[in-house]
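check this:
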Amino acid sequence: MNISDMPRLRFAQLPTPLEEAANLSKFLGGPRILFKRDDLTASALGGNKVRKLEFILGRAVAEGYDTLIVPGGYQSNMARITASLANKLGLNIELVLGGAPEEVINHNGNLLLEHLLGANITYVNTVPRWDFGTTLEDLKKKLQAKGLKPYLLPLGGSSPEGMAGYVEATLELKEQCLLQSIKPDRLFVAIGSGGTYSGLLLGALNIDVGYQITGVSVSRTREYLLEKVPENVEHGASLLGMKSFNADHTLSIYDDYVGDSYGAITDDCRKAIQLVARTEGVFLDPVYSGKCMAGMIDLIRKGAISSKETVIFLHTGGWPALFAYEDELFQSSETKQYLRKSTGS
């Protein structure tokens, strides 16, 4: 099946901007940095999941499903956006959100928005967050017993349908680069479940883009991703009628910036969020884009990225989660000192 033949619902405001980050580039002493603003896809406060959901929900609606089951973490961006789009489409929405037993669920950020959207939410104490045991299948059977037709979405939208969204994004980005006479050397993106990275890689294998796709993991190990991503790409290429890569293809993936666990903010992530906000007026999130930016900054400072290169940073959105990390974001000594000066204490 070609992508052009796939059912698709148009939700995103496209193309998303490709913007210079001149102040950040200057602060770091190069390279040239641009932001691909997929935080501005518009639907439900935006994010990379919107591109994926155009195809995933396109399939669900075309096949007559009336209920969506969405797995994710407590601050899942996928859950927020899918809940909003489900309301738009008149579909029932069930969220299954997981996290560590010792975590206190902060009903702020994405969770607050999901409650406002009226989603039914099932909480699961689980480590890792993507291991839901039998909860998802049990819920599916329960809904079927009520006469509903539930569709279980892939975690993070990591499916051929989700990947199709980022094959299309690759073509969009290429056109923007041609119009702006930009020749990027690298494209940086956060890796969670791996769907966005895999879609970008599949796009690059089938569209002459000329840049390396560098992924910064926010959860899984590099070893796991080096096995999983090729499986994703091969599966997607097969179903979408596209070219895959050979065994000699080298993947650029880093897992040095995860920290204690998925969703646990690191000091470098906090600094990256503050730096981008203060140089570019752009908000990153503490789970995905903040950690990816921390990795990119570290690689620049180590000299792994030349000051003469041109780098595109794919901003995947997720900034509503900032409001669930208030304590962590204000605990740095720099921020505390600033607050003391501001209040005169």
